[in-house]
TrEMBL record:
GO terms for molecular function: 5'-nucleotidase activity. It comes from Neisseria bacilliformis ATCC BAA-1200. Its EC number is 3.1.3.5. This is Pyrimidine 5'-nucleotidase. Pfam families: Hydrolase.
């Protein structure tokens, strides 16, 4: 049997993006949309929210509805790393819990790869992971698009049925489950759902479930 591969979301899973990072990114996304699509600030904010709700990521909506858009420029502008790192708040117990999991571990994020690498490094988690995948590593596919998960599986040479997706989004977990992955709904709001094999409110609960679910 192939080795278990853990796929970790980044924002609101390995760190608390709602502590200020999301607000900064959302503001910058709105500014870019307004400037580049010739929209008012209110129209750009409405569109950003709409695409996030409809597609799981503002980037996914931009890619679909404006295929000529410079996606790399959008991501660079939306993720000012100095401001982001100043707001970084890691998830308590992440290094011990993630480091102790049996199997290979990777990050799969809808954020750009430079953001993933810098945050994982700043969190002191680089040694825990064999791969750090951003949306640009997945041809700009974003969860819950199946192409994002399959790109990760290809990069890691792992079939979906050997993977465990850990994410704070039920929609992302539902997509992973349809591909045959096991799933962990992570965060204070997590509770038992058909799309989740485990609901872990913190890293200690994740580690406890993993000790039973992944054999030595």
């Amino acid at each position: 049997m192939s080795q278990t591969v853990w796929l970790f979301d980044l924002d609101n899973t390995l760190h608390r993006a709602e502590a200020g990072i999301f607000q900064l990114i959302n503001r910058r996304m709105t500014e870019w949309l307004a400037a580049n699509l010739c929209l008012s600030a209110s129209e750009a904010d409405r569109l950003r929210r709409q695409w996030w709700h409809e597609h799981g990521a503002t980037l996914a909506g931009l890619r679909l509805h404006h295929p000529q858009a410079d996606l790399a420029d959008f991501l660079r502008f939306a993720h000012p790393m100095d401001g982001i790192l100043a707001r970084l708040c890691g998830e308590t117990g992440a290094a011990e819990a993630v480091g102790g999991l049996r199997g290979r571990k990777a990050v799969l994020s809808n954020a750009p790869s430079f953001y993933v690498r810098e945050l994982v490094s700043a969190l002191g988690l680089s040694e825990c992971f064999v791969s750090l995948l951003g949306t640009d590593d997945c041809a700009y596919a974003c969860k819950p698009d199946p192409d994002a998960y399959m790109a990760a599986c290809a990069a890691l040479d792992a079939p979906p049925e050997c993977c465990i997706m850990v994410d704070d989004s039920a929609a992302n977990l539902a997509a992973a489950k349809r591909l045959g992955m096991r799933t962990v709904w992570f965060g204070a709001h997590a509770h038992q759902l058909p799309v989740a094999d485990c609901a872990a409110r913190d890293m200690a609960e994740l580690a406890a479930w993993a000790a039973e679910a992944v054999p030595a």
